[in-house]
Write a structure and sequence with these properties.
- It contains eleven helices and 26 strands.
- The protein is an alpha+beta fold.
- It has a 17-stranded antiparallel β-sheet, covered by helices on one side. Strands 6-5-4-3-7-8-9 form a seven-stranded antiparallel β-sheet. The chain has a two-stranded parallel sheet with strand order 1-2.
- Helix 4 runs antiparallel to helix 6.
- The protein starts with 13 loop residues before the first helix and ends with a helix.
- One of its GO terms (biological process) is spermatogenesis.
- This is Dynein regulatory complex subunit 7.
- Its main location: cytoplasm.
């Protein structure tokens, strides 16, 4: 692939040529290659792989059987032919040494395994587990594949590895789960090779794609002419645009210069490994890549992947013979095409066709400690230990090597913990910043698990100090969300409920020192809003620690709004009723008929201590009623109004108690 020998641009500047010359020198001496340590955790450089214990490993790890030696001989012969026909290509990654210092063909390192956890039956769960469970280590030389490739057994035990280790483990899990997955040896960008996501937007902050609005298919619909534009206004807008445009252009150029990443002198030469998943099996609709470092899926046209040298699985090995000048976007992944892909083992020598192989469909393969889960290992030596005993449930539920994982994104930081690692149930925290240096916090989101109060997420706006708590179903008060600035009472609380589970169908409640508004959904009486106004408390001496309900706020007014009840006539269906508690006034407003323009209104008021007005009618010694002249005849019936007043006075008592209960609930 010519992309491995030259830069993508045809016309190169002098500095680009110098950088390529430098990269050639780096290729000859691995110790002089700089590693981007800023994007790699500092602890990964402290681990000594030469000190690992290999005594517990099976004998198949330490020696090669006769058939394994034959396979290595085939690989050497294939490599000789390859270097003869393609002298300009880089050496293939065929048989690196394992942790015991023994050369092993790369396909024998892939061990299809289905672990007994439901999450690992899907590619997303497998990818997320590998990305979280392992600690990333950079390649010693970014221009060459590693000289060794350890088994997934050792990688799982020590929970660390490079991109090739990540890829082999992930590919083993995916094949065990029934996917048509392959390990890829290729080239990628600096950010992808070094696990640098500081230029990317955090996935939790990505907005869902907008659904386009449906266009009215009626082409015969009448279109009214729009108002003609003013020529003077257009001229003024053009002048303002001419004045602002140069300033905006300069500011934009400055921002681009600041945000533009530095050019990588090794662009197109950095070695990386990832996973290829072909369409077909497990109903995968389209071929895609998985970056094992992050666990994210990518399209095969992603510009982060710059070229492919070879791919392999547990059965065979393929060499890419296609041009990668334009990255991977034009590559064909039809492995049966001998022009695009050079296969190593012919159909007669294909690993799955050898007689020693267990006749089992890999789509349904499940690892068993008594079976050889290493597909090629069963062919070329004794079956090695299974991955399942190496991952007990306790370790699977604690997927982070150091108990915590930190990921830096553009203007954001994501922290993850294992369940029960924190006493408050915190498992994930996302901090959003205002600047690229991540110095000024804008918003913090926290996710919780296994809490007694069923708190699921908490959002905190650092600028307004507004906090919103979200709860899972099952809370004793049926809480869904709670927004506040302080947990002190009467300081402004917005509470949302799972209204379908409440007897009163309450959906939302807003409460502060002077008012409380409640919203209802789906009530049989068609009530949808209740608004209560409070007065100031009487100033009394209160003992320290006494509750506010010991001196309740006086209720000034209660207002209720109702939706239209189609089973009632409009002049009997109340739309709004207001109880002025202190003034002893009850006002009723009825719904409108289709042909009406003014609603009927009735007002009840107490007359003790004042004179009766001319348009008021006595119902009792204490209460009188007033209705509008255009009101319905039903509203002028004195007996009906008297019965209605009695009902309203009784409902007012119940309403007061409901308001006090709502205060106590808040």
């Amino acid at each position: 692939m010519e992309v491995l020998e030259e830069e993508e641009e045809v016309e190169q500047k002098a500095e680009d040529v110098n950088s390529l010359n430098i990269s050639d020198d780096l290729e000859d001496d691995e110790t002089d290659v700089p590693v981007a340590e800023d994007s790699v955790p500092s602890d990964v450089f402290d681990f000594d792989w030469s000190s690992i214990d290999t005594a517990h490993l099976p004998s198949s790890y330490k020696t090669n059987s006769r058939k394994e030696k034959e396979l290595l001989h085939l690989a050497d012969h294939f490599h000789q032919q390859y270097t003869h026909l393609c002298p300009d290509r880089k050496p293939l990654f065929l048989h690196p040494v394992n942790e015991c210092g023994v050369e092993k063909f790369v396909s024998t390192t892939v061990r299809p395994t289905l672990l007994p956890y439901p999450e690992l039956y899907y590619w997303s769960g497998c990818a997320s587990f590998v990305a979280n469970y392992l600690t990333m280590e950079p390649l010693k030389c970014p221009l060459k594949p590693p000289s060794s490739l350890y088994s997934p057994t050792t990688i799982l035990k020590y929970q660390r590895g490079n991109s090739f280790d990540f890829t082999v483990l992930l590919c083993s899990l995916l094949i065990g789960a029934g996917y048509d997955a392959y390990c890829v040896h290729g080239y990628a960008t600096l950010e992808m090779c070094s696990l640098d996501q500081t230029q990317e937007l955090c996935p939790l902050l990505r907005k869902p794609p907008e659904v386009p609005e449906e266009v009215d298919p009626n082409k015969y619909r009448i279109r009214f002419p729009s108002e003609p534009p003013s020529k003077f206004e257009l001229q003024q807008e053009a002048k303002e645009k001419e004045e602002i445009e140069p300033v905006q252009k300069e500011e934009g150029e400055k921002e681009v210069e600041v945000d533009k990443p530095k050019r990588d002198p090794l662009h197109g030469l950095r070695v990386h490994a990832w996973v290829l998943v072909l369409s077909g099996k497990r109903k995968v609709p389209e071929t895609f890549f998985i970056n094992a470092f992050t666990g994210n899926s990518h399209s095969t046209t992603d510009e982060g992947f710059l070229g492919i040298e070879s791919i392999w699985n547990h059965r065979n090995y393929w060499v890419n013979m296609q041009d990668c000048r334009k990255g991977c976007k034009d590559l064909s992944f039809d492995l049966n095409d001998s022009i695009c892909w050079e296969i190593m083992l012919s159909e007669s020598n294909k690993l799955s066709e050898l007689p020693e192989l267990h006749k089992r469909d890999m789509d349904d393969m499940v690892s068993d400690p008594n079976d050889g889960s290493r597909a090629v290992g069963t062919l070329y030596g004794p079956s090695s230990m299974c991955l399942t005993p190496l991952l007990p449930t306790a370790e699977f539920e604690n997927p982070y090597a150091q108990g915590k994982k930190v990921i830096l994104y553009e203007k954001a930081k994501l922290e993850k913990w294992a369940p029960y690692a924190n006493g408050n149930g915190l498992v994930e925290r996302l901090t959003v910043y205002a600047d690229l240096d991540r110095s000024e916090e804008v918003e913090v989101k926290k996710w919780f698990k296994n809490r007694e109060d069923l708190l699921d997420m908490r959002e905190v706006n650092k600028q307004t100090q507004l906090t919103t708590d979200y709860f899972r179903p099952g809370h004793p008060l049926l809480l869904k969300a709670h927004t506040y600035t302080s947990l002190e009472p009467e300081t402004g609380h917005i509470v949302e409920f799972y209204h379908k589970a409440r007897l009163d169908d309450l959906w939302k409640r807003f409460e502060n020192a002077t008012e409380m508004t409640e919203y209802f959904v789906g009530r049989d009486d068609f009530l949808h809003i209740r608004h209560t106004e409070f007065g100031e408390r009487e100033k009394k001496m209160q003992m320290a620690g006494t509750r506010t309900d010991a001196n309740p706020r006086p209720i000034v007014q209660i207002k209720e709004c109702f939706h239209r009840n189609p089973e009632k006539p409009a002049d009997e269906d109340i739309e709004e009723r207001i109880f002025m508690v202190i003034d002893d006034i009850i006002q009723l407003t009825y719904h409108l008929e289709v042909h009406d323009t003014i609603a009927s209104k009735v007002a009840f008021s107490r007359v003790i201590g004042r004179e009766r007005k001319a348009d008021e009618i006595f119902l009792t010694r204490e209460w009188c009623v007033k209705y509008q002249p255009w009101s319905s005849e039903k509203h002028k019936n004195i007996l009906r109004l008297y019965n209605l007043l009695c009902e309203l006075r009784e409902e007012l008592k119940q309403l007061k108690q409901q308001v006090r209960d709502a205060e106590a609930e808040v």
